[in-house]
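Aim 2 progress update. The chain analyzed this quarter is reproduced below.
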Amino acid sequence: MRRIDWVVYAKPPFGGPQQVLAYLGRYTHRVAIANSRLASLNDHEVAFRWKDYRHHDKTKLMTLAADEFIRRFLLHTLPDGFHRIRHYGFLANGHRVAKLAICRRLLTTPPPAPLVPPADYRERYRRLTGRSLEICPCCGGLMKPLGARRPARCAWPDTS
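Predicted structure tokens:
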């Protein structure tokens, strides 16, 4: 394969790198069925909308037994150990850090600033959402650790 004089035809993307990433992201990070397509569900059946391409893209409603719906849904999930996105070249897992350092040196790009991880999950939550876990969602007051008890006047949902 190394003896072959390969001709690579690569043209720049039409809309730029952001459009390419948006296009790929729609396919690489999607779920087998969107919540908006689910019409109804109960203990025994799931009803969802689907497009019948054989009949001029007509939207139809299909009702399946819950176990059959789950069986079909799981056909679209990858088994353990499989990856949805495979990287190759300088982004492949083997020696990625060293290869990226070579790329940065050749492009005369400074190395990225080291990431400083947040002290704990509370700080990370605050950085990501802009809200503090130490502020009560009901009254806005400062929360104090009380062990397993909760104040009786706060009516937030129990998500445990």
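The first helix runs from residue 17 to 28. DSSP finds four helices and three strands in the chain. These observations will guide the mutagenesis experiments scheduled for the next reporting period.
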